[in-house]
From TrEMBL, chain A:
It holds the Pfam family Oxidored_q2. The chain crosses the membrane at residues 6-21, 28-51, 71-96. It is found in: Cell membrane. This is Na(+)/H(+) antiporter subunit C. GO terms for cellular component: plasma membrane. Keywords: Cell membrane, Membrane, Transmembrane, Transmembrane helix. Its main location: membrane. The keyword Transmembrane applies. The keyword Cell membrane applies.
TrEMBL record, chain B:
One of its GO terms (biological process) is ATP synthesis coupled electron transport. It comes from Roseivivax jejudonensis. Keywords: Cell membrane, Membrane, Transmembrane, Transmembrane helix. It is found in: Cell membrane; Membrane. Residues 127-419 form the NADH:quinone oxidoreductase/Mrp antiporter transmembrane domain. GO terms for cellular component: plasma membrane. It comes from the Bacteria. Residues 460-470 have a biased composition (Basic and acidic residues). GO terms for molecular function: NADH dehydrogenase (ubiquinone) activity. Pfam families: Proton_antipo_M. InterPro entries: CPA3_Na-H_Antiporter_D (IPR050586), NADH_UbQ_OxRdtase (IPR003918), ND/Mrp_TM (IPR001750). This is Na(+)/H(+) antiporter subunit D. Belongs to the CPA3 antiporters (TC 2.A.63) subunit D family. The keyword Disulfide bond does not apply.
Amino acid sequence: MELLVASGIGVLTAAGIYLVLRLRTFPVILGTALLTYAVNVFLFASGRLVVGAPPILMDDASRYTDPLPQALVLTAIVISFGMTAVVVMIALGAFLGSDDDHVDDQDGALDPVRKLERAE
Amino acid sequence: MSHWIATPIVLPAMVAAFLLLVCRHHLGLQRIFALASGVAMIAIALGLFVQAFDGTITLYQLGDWQAPFGIVLVADRLSTLMVLLTAVLALLVQLHAIGTGWDDRGRHFHTLFQFQLMGIMGAFLTGDVFNLFVFFEVLLIASYGLMIHSGGTRRTQAGTQYVLYNLLGSTLFLFALGTIYAETGTLNMADLAERVRQIDPENSAGIRVAAVLLIIVFAIKAAIAPVHFWLPASYSEAPGPVAALFAIMTKVGAYAIIRIYTLVFPPDLELTQGLIDTWLLPLALIGLTIGMVGVLGATRLDRLVAFSVIGSMGMLSVAVALFTAEGITAALYYVVHSTLATAALFLIVDLVAEHRTRHAELVTAPPVPSAGILGAMFFAAAIAMAGLPPLSGFVGKLLILDAAFDSPLVVWTWAVILTTSLVAVVGFARAGSTVFWKAAEAQERLDADLDDSLTQMDNVESKPETDPRRQPALPLLPIATLLGLLALHTVFSGPVNGFMAATAEQLFSPEPYISTVLETEGKEIEYHGSGEYAEEGDGDGHGEGSGSGEHGEEEGH
């Protein structure tokens, strides 16, 4: 199970980093979303992986799973969800204002591809 | 347990909610309550500052749970100093925003401003790293709103970059926190300090990765090269008063570096040897160079100030990266100076760009209204920023140069600091003379053209008024106050430096901090084995009933 979770985090992170390095807003936002998923699973695993054990005090439990990472993940999920919503709105505003969804510098004077696109 | 430590966080949160829910449609009321809150914050911050002045460390346990299980707020010299600095800056920036009408150009300026203050204050006061992350997010999400206040395409585009960069920073922060928790099993700073010291050096890969990840995160906030790229566009496109408030945001990063790397990963710790002096110091010098060269090369006034922020953060991180008591003393002196000088410059540039025909572009244009006084203020602020005598930038730089004397990189440090100072002086002189000095010339040329065209048209109805509209006094007041504070910071640099030295001493002997946090008892919980819990008050902070020694059983915990 450790291998599965670890490789899951790895694949999510790798895909996220690839997408974050893209030029347009949409893939970049998707990339940040993937990265936040990866980090959520990572946080969850930071309390060690335990199957079938309760996180809170119980009379008939012999072993427990660490409850703190679950609380941390909850916080992280809420925050990343809110942040992603904010960035989508701001990026949408920027795109509608300029008809251009590149994330690099606005003028783009050095970008031949964009010049071609503009010319069309 | 006094509840005053929590008020710098609770008050802005309440005021923000009040502004949003009650005076949403009434700007006048918003201004009144925001200013009242600003004044109250300064009073509270002063109280906390005086309380911590003699080295007292005050602890506040949220929900009365004992650390490390509960979250704590800690007010020591460094925290209260930063809280006071933030409170003063916030009130002045609010005055500027009201005086220039920036708060009227979009919605919810004051609400977002209060939330931003809440985040900043929380980041300075918290004693828990995960809580630090949460307060970072609070201040960031408010800053996203402030950054794109009043809209505009360029601003929202710069805002997108800013948000994305910080989103990545937050993700890295979470990875670092996850690693720390996996390695140590705690997130309380004082508890971390104890546990990190017990980690076997043979088996320390995880915690070393976490230390590096954390410093990258804080370097992003503090705009240290090579992760400073978010800063120029965001700060120059942000509304003037917001950029001035952001002057404290980079300092949050610097504060976090100072706090974590004196408490949790202190310089004498075997595990993280070389992290600060091998990596941070050269990068800080590079950042300083990039910033000051940017000042020289900028084609817009707001970009110029943004690059000077990178430069001054570089200078600050040089002092931090020395990681000696003298270095931190110099850094703390420079933090106050740099915050005030940066804010003053952003506010001046805002007024200049507002009324100039060519806005913030660095080309000659007719003079702005009240060009005399604005020019004088720019001159003073630029002197402070570039670190020329007689203002505090010079004192700060001397302190840093002096502290760097024992560093192995002393030659490099001195050479870079002195050269970049010269570059910055030239950059500021060029900008100042273009905007203020050559403005009269441009006006004459314009008048001549105008006269020509008027005589050609041959109907001289009314010559346009040439005497420039005067600047209203209110926006000038905060700038003058900031410059006055800079002058005071210089005049009283002896006592101030004494206080900073005491602060640095407190940071480098963290035992009182750790014992205060970990040994103060919270409430006690008894477990009776049947799913019922009884709470025992510790006689402190539980109101009247718990003082008599009778502990009534309370259900529902």
